[in-house]
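Protein details
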Amino acid sequence: MYGAKASLTSHDLAAELLRRAAGDDLHKRMLAGLPLVSRDWCWTVWLEVLAQLPAEDQQWIRETLLADPAWGYGEKISESEG
């Protein structure tokens, strides 16, 4: 999926990127599924939820979604935090 342009509202893409990065880790797979059951959450809500997670989970999610700038998540996250 490297080189693909993300839809900034794509819960499906975020979930798939996280699922692939999670591998067989059950805890990470549960985090990866959260976007699919929370389609009503906007970026502001996502960042509030992210801030409540343990630091290790926050880091993993950020590293995963920011791995390729072409996906567009870095820009959206920066806008929401700024």
Notes: The CA atoms of residues 12 and 34 lie 10 Å apart. The longest helix spans residues 11-22.
